[in-house]
Amino acid sequence: MLALIQRVTEASVRIDGETVGAIGPGLLALVGVEPGDGPAQVERMARRLLGYRVFADAEGRMNLGLSATGGGLLLVSQFTLAADTASGMRPGFSTAAPPAQAEPLFNDLLRTCRQLHAGGVETGRFGAHMVISLTNDGPVTFLLRS
């Protein structure tokens, strides 16, 4: 499981012109599921998303995780994140989990994050064409692997 996280001052996801998820300060996480991912990867990724220290403490150092700040989390499924880009000029998608496997795992991640984080967890819609808007804060962007 992969997550491209971005520290944001705000982020939202729209489908067909309707905003379906939005947060203020917090993290936008684009999530890709890979073949072989399962409950262990979901649990590890949830803990990393909520605890990864990318927010400033009183001294301005990145020492605080999302749970410590109470910020929002916007989780967006993105199978292209798991694409094979090692060669050629076109991505291959055999390295991404098929939708029948990926959707339940993404939903488990969403459910786990909602159980563990009181700061609010929003999402888009699995498999939909989504328009993501964000204001990256920093910029601060990291690729997490479970």
TrEMBL record:
Domain of life (superkingdom): Bacteria
State its Enzyme Commission number(s).
3.1.1.96, 3.1.1.-
From which source organism is this entry?
Novilysobacter luteus
Give start-end ranges for motif Gly-cisPro motif, important for rejection of L-amino acids: 138-139
Q: Which reaction does it catalyse?
A: a D-aminoacyl-tRNA + H2O = a tRNA + a D-alpha-amino acid + H(+); glycyl-tRNA(Ala) + H2O = tRNA(Ala) + glycine + H(+)
**Name of the protein this chain belongs to:** D-aminoacyl-tRNA deacylase
Q: Does the keyword tRNA-binding apply?
A: yes
* Signal keyword on record: no
Q: Name one Pfam family in it.
A: Tyr_Deacylase
Q: How does it assemble?
A: Homodimer.
Query: What does this protein's UniProt record list under function?
Result: An aminoacyl-tRNA editing enzyme that deacylates mischarged D-aminoacyl-tRNAs. Also deacylates mischarged glycyl-tRNA(Ala), protecting cells against glycine mischarging by AlaRS. Acts via tRNA-based rather than protein-based catalysis; rejects L-amino acids rather than detecting D-amino acids in the active site. By recycling D-aminoacyl-tRNA to D-amino acids and free tRNA molecules, this enzyme counteracts the toxicity associated with the formation of D-aminoacyl-tRNA entities in vivo and helps enforce protein L-homochirality.
Record-linked InterPro entries: Daa-tRNA_deacyls_DTD, DTD-like_sf
